[in-house]
Amino acid sequence: MQWNLDQLRQFVATAEHGSISAAARHLGKAQSAVSTAIGLLEADLGVELFDRSKHRATLSDAGQLLLLEAQELLRQAQSLQQRALSLATGGEARLALAFDEALPYAAIGHLVREIAGRFPHMELVLFNGTATEVAGYVKQERADVAFHFDRGPLRDCFDQRHIGSLPQGVFVASGHPLLDKQPVARKDLARYRQLLMHAEDVQAIAYSPKVWRSDSFYTIAEMVADDLGWAILPVNIAKYESYPKPLQQVICPSLALPPLPVRMLWCQGRQLGPTAEWIASRFAELLKHSA
User: Fold this and answer.
1) Which ranges carry the HTH lysR-type domain (predicted)?
2) Residue 80: its pLDDT value, please?
3) I need a labelling partner for 26 at 20 to 30 A (CA). Which of 79, 97, 130, 232 fits?
């Protein structure tokens, strides 16, 4: 096969503009050059692309089928060119991101849509899991970068950066006795079962002698909604509307709960590329609006 992409472009332009002369004007070429290119393409393919018995350039049956193939080949060639340009200017060809399942869905969804628009030729892989799991994805080199709630010190194999924080509070199911007395004291909380976050190497504070544990904020929130106890939860988790009973916040001034810090982590010694840096900066902005 001796045909080339330039011949395909002239064939497609002729089909789309309705005549060789119109295609020549569009491409900035001589009409004779476009006519010759199409003739050579037909000779190489072994089919007539246009019905020349009519005044205008009308596609033959074979031409109609091959036009679709030619358009797709040109689209792929353009995609190849754009991806090569992105790589040549330092962009990542592929990026794997891991997100703590407890981070706001709206912020993550908005970020992913912006990535699609800003880096259309990059291959993206997304992971979700608990705070411990997403750190594990980075350690295993399945993910390049992870975003999760800061639950304590990291191993030496990670580098990290603080990118924001989200509010947390004490929550119970609607109708819980703690809601009858607001604000409450720690001794009031101690009368009821506490549903506590359990994370590797992190000892969360128990304010009640009766404790159940889980490594998932969502599982804890579901148990709260089932009237199994109270829990300290990120506010964005407690606000979801899919629980069996709505969750309501209990005011306990003596706890003085600080915002939950969110951090970005990656393998120690690895240099983050410009795409990862942009994602970190943009996600920090989106978290700020979610707080």
Assistant:
1) 3-60
2) 73
3) 79
Query: What's the pLDDT at 198?
Result: 82
pTM listed for this prediction: 0.68
Q: Name the CATH topology of 168-255.
A: D-Maltodextrin-Binding Protein; domain 2 (3.40.190)
Kindly list the domain boundaries of the chain, sorted by start residue: 5-88, 94-164+262-290, 168-255
CATH number for 5-88: choose from 1.20.1600.10, 3.20.20.80, 1.10.3880.10, 1.10.10.10.
1.10.10.10
Residue 195's contacts (CB-CB under 8 Å, 6 or more residues apart) are 211, 212, 213, 214, 220, 223, 224, 228, 229, 230, 231
How far apart are alpha carbons 254 and 170 in whole angstroms? 12
Residue with tokens 């899919």: 242
Q: What is the largest CA-CA distance in the chain?
A: 95
Return the pLDDT at 3: 87
